[in-house]
Amino acid sequence: MQKGEDSLKSPANLSVREVEEALGLEPCAEFIRACEQDPRVSIQRLLARHYKHREAQIAEQLRIERLLSEEKRLWEQGYLFIAGIDEAGRGPLAGPVVAAACILPARFTLPGLNDSKKLTEHKRDTLFTEIKKQAIDFAVGSAEPAEIDVLNILQATKLAMRRAVEGLRTRPNYLIIDAVELNTISIPQLPLINGDNLSASVAAASILAKVTRDNLMAQLHSLYPEYGFDKNKGYGTQEHVQVLRRLGPCPIHRRSFTPVEASAG
What we know:
This protein is α/β, with parallel strands linked by helices and 265 residues long. The chain has 3 domains: 6-67, no CATH class; 81-210, 2-Layer Sandwich (Nucleotidyltransferase, domain 5); 221-263, no CATH class. The protein is 50% helix and 11% strand. The protein is built from 12 helices and 5 strands. The protein has helices at 16-23, 29-37, 41-67, 69-76, 121-134, 145-151, 153-166, 195-198, 200-221, 229-232, 238-247, 258-263; strands at residues 82-88, 97-103, 137-143, 174-178, 189-192. The chain has a 5-stranded mixed β-sheet. Strand 1 (82-88) and strand 2 form a beta hairpin. Helix 1 runs parallel beside helix 3 (41-67) and helix 5 (121-134) crosses helix 9 (200-221). The longest helix has 27 residues, at 41-67. The protein is flat, with a radius of gyration of 24 Å. The N and C termini lie far apart (72 Å).
């Protein structure tokens, strides 16, 4: 049966299952009105579920529209390629700090797009794949533990962000950056506090950075399994700190961070 074909029929001539399928295919208003008149309790339940799902879709569309407010303002000013930039891994005791830059198109389908910290691992992974498919361009950059120790974590974060921007094949006209300013890059930019909650581009970058870093820490776990990097991702959990005190730091620990420095003896 072709899409929308059921919606051309009266629901009275359809089984409950056929009505359910029709409601899932964006039926016409006439079909919805006919369903409202259908005396079957099961049809009314399906219709209520359809309304609830539609309301959720509209709410999500409005949320995404609000998340694009900064981008829209800049697009209207003529900045066509806006890169959102965010990082993951400023706080851990081990591993690199990873940054991502992401240029989104004006139209995309990324339901649930949000600050990576607010998403489940499964949702992050799903969006990670979709963002890479739909983005105009994206790139990831990082700064290693040794660079963090030399530069300090803030400067290393900026270095990772700069590397991400430099990795883009499409040169952005404008940067929206989560909380920091990149003075070494001569591109107009907006340091936006809490940017991953206020900008769709930054939220997308936060997911790219977070998933990339998590995957990297899972790989590093095979080299240093004692520290549990596959679970703690390098953060200073109680178990991680206990192992650190017992074994001392490994090559990917940040030796300038106090718990690591204390464990080095």
